[in-house]
Structures are given as C-alpha cells and as structure tokens.
Sequence to fold (193 residues):
Amino acid sequence: MNSNELWLVEESRKGNVDAFEELIKDYKRVAYNIALRILRNVEDAEDASQEALIKVYKSIQNFNMQSTFKVWMYRIVVNTCIDFKRKKNINVVSMDEGIDVGGDNQVYREIADDSANPDVLLEKNFNSKVINDAVSKLEDDYKAIIILRDIQGFSYSEIAEILSCNLGTVKSRLNRARKSLKEILENELKIQC
Fold:
C-alpha cells in the first residue's frame, strides 16, 4: 500500500468522508462490475455495491493493513453480493439477456467484433452466450472464483484474501470450478448438437 493510500485510510478512520471518497474513487467501478457480474441486474448491483461501500466505511477501523485496501474492499463487495443474492433469492441470467434498468427498460450488451465476417460474429456470439450461461449455472463459490480470476484477472493471492481462504484452497476451488464449467459446457454442446 502506498503512503498516500495509507494516509487516506488513517484519515478515513478518523471520520474524514472526503478522504474516504478519495480512497475508494479508483475502486468503485470494479466493485460495481463485480456486483453486476454476480447479481446480473443493474439496480441490484448498484444497491449491493453501495451497501458494500457503506460497510467498508463503517468497518474501516477493522482493516488491519496486512493486505491491500483494494483486496480487503473487494472481499466485502463479494460477500455483500452473495448475501444480497441470498436475501433476494436472485436467479442469475445470461450476460446476453437484457439487464433490467427499471421502468420496463432493458439494456443489451453487444459483443464488439472487428471482423466483417458474419460467420465469425455468429460463432463469437454463440460461444459467449454458451459460456456466460454455463458460468451462471455454477455454484456461488465457483462462480465467484471464476469471475475474480478469469474475468477480473485477480492474482491467486488476491483471491485468497478476498475470499478469506488459503492459496491452496483458491487453486483447488478454481480447478474444481473450471472442471465443473467444462462439464456444463460439454453437456450444453451435446444438447445443441
């Protein structure tokens, strides 16, 4: 943790809201993206990420500075999203399905493709949908670790801190998650053939 971040943490512990805002400004977007990937709903992701940030502010006294602030904060975000999902009993949908933005409006993601070949575009869209559907079928623990490692790109040690488990557990859980994902994908492809 750099000296500026350390100072911001100390000031936040004293109740300095401006210091806290400065501290989290670079992490808010990733926190929201993690929430959106876990919850698959814009409003729920906004609510959960805001709830997580409030928890971070209220519990910053408990931050022991043994890990980076970023990792500690994302641990709270992931746990808050899992709790939020359990409370609401949210069913996860595919990333290719619309995201509810309220008022009977939905936003659809588009997958960028630089090629002009329609076959390539069709195949990429199909593959993306199949993979996202498969990820959505994973257990929460497996889904979280796939999102953190393969989508968000966190290191094994950062994931261990975020999920509050040891490095060996991260590696074995990721291995099991990938095997489970592979099985789901193989089953999906058999059904579609």
Remarks:
- The radius of gyration is 19 Å.
